[in-house]
Specification:
This protein is of the alpha+beta class and 361 residues long. It is built from 14 helices and eleven strands. Strands 4-5-1-2-7-3-6 form a seven-stranded mixed β-sheet. A two-stranded parallel sheet has the order 8-9. A two-stranded antiparallel sheet has the order 10-11.
């Protein structure tokens, strides 16, 4: 490695390593300089001449807000970047792989992984400059040209798998909707012992019934909450009470709990064993919760009189499409409309108009 002009360099504390016979460097960089030194390929450049995907600008505000709302406990993973020129590593006397990495200021440094984090950092620092004092880890590779950078991007993303929505719900302690979903899974009768915490679907032979992500979404529907809205303690108490009352009026749920009906058989035969059933009940529950307690109890008692078998023709073109369950938003709405009729709730003119359009589409 030749000498470079260290008077015009960025210097980072770094660790040197080797991968596939090539050196790489792990450095710590202050957030404030990330937008200045790390470039990403502009959108105008054709895909075949870029080493990254086009920046999805719609993702940036949410990521920046995460940084701004959690300045004391956010976590951002390392960026991966390619340096388009020679670098210099000055090893320490104690360890040949610990030292200082010098990168020329005029070097082109392209991000191979983390362009959205970079853009979010830039936006967050504009609003809260103090964040610029924090550091982020950066994995530097010495660039070997466009072909190598494109291959790095492909390799870095080839095996990347997003966690299931249930697992993300289980581990997300900032999101109040996730918190209340976990609470319901442990404290509401229909969900205790019957919640799939890791997957977003229930396998055929599983003894579980509902997914944690399904409970989370149903609870949002129950209270008419958007994805960004939180919950308070009163709503948590109401949610447990509501689902317990529903459970008291759902004979098949109780049969599974009493082990007189197996969970796999329940899921195979009954609509009420699936997320669409739970969502539709929550949709109706949003209306029921606005009523006096006596009226609530009268309507919920009628849930037990409904024929929840998938083979019931009432669910055709609503929950069932061509003999299969459909989880589409429109199907949840149509299923909820049928449940309202079954328990004696009169749909609004707007609901009837929407139902007409969907059924005749």
């Amino acid at each position: 490695m030749g000498k470079i002009d260290t008077n015009y360099c960025y210097s980072f504390p770094a660790v040197r390593g080797q991968q596939a016979g090539k050196p790489f460097y792990i450095a710590t960089c202050p957030l404030r300089i990330i937008p200045k030194i790390f470039m990403y390929d502009e959108e105008e450049v054709p895909a075949e001449l870029r080493s990254q995907r086009t920046l999805n600008k719609s993702r940036i505000p949410e990521m920046a807000r995460y940084l701004l709302d959690s300045p004391d406990d956010y976590v951002f993973s390392a960026l991966t970047a390619s340096v388009g020129t020679e670098v210099e590593f000055k090893k320490s006397q104690e360890n040949p792989n610990l030292g200082t990495l010098s990168v020329p200021m005029d070097a082109q440094i392209l991000i191979n992984d983390g362009q959205h984090r970079r853009a979010a950092i830039e936006e967050a620092i504009k609003e809260n400059p103090e964040l610029g004092q924090d550091n982020i880890a950066v994995l530097f590779f010495v660039d070997e040209g466009l072909k190598r950078s494109q291959q790095m991007f492909a390799d870095l993303n080839k095996y990347a798998v997003r966690p299931s929505s249930s697992l993300a719900t289980l581990y997300d302690h900032r999101d109040q909707a996730s918190e209340i979903a976990r609470y319901l899974a442990m404290n509401a009768k229909p969900f205790i012992g019957f919640t799939e915490f890791e997957r977003s679907s229930v396998s055929v032979r599983s003894n579980k019934i509902f997914t944690l992500s399904g409970i989370k979404q149903a609870n949002r529907t129950l209270f008419g909450k958007g994805s960004k809205e939180g919950f308070n303690e009163e709503e948590k108490t109401k949610a447990v009470a509501f689902w317990n009352k529903v459970n008291d009026n759902m004979p098949e749920w109780q049969q599974v709990q009493n082990k007189t009906l197996s969970a796999p058989e329940f899921r195979q035969e009954f609509l009420s064993a699936h997320g669409i059933g739970l969502q539709a009940i929550a949709n109706v529950g949003h209306y029921i919760l606005k009523l006096e307690e006596n009226e609530q109890n009268q309507l919920l008692a009628k849930l037990g009189k409904i024929n929840w078998l998938k083979s019931n023709s009432a669910w055709s073109n609503r929950a069932m499409q061509h003999g299969r369950l459909s989880k589409a938003v429109s199907n949840i709405f149509l299923t909820a409309m049928q449940i309202k009729r079954e328990v004696g709730i009169t749909p609004t003119p707007e609901e009837l108009e929407k139902e007409n359009k969907l059924l005749n589409a």
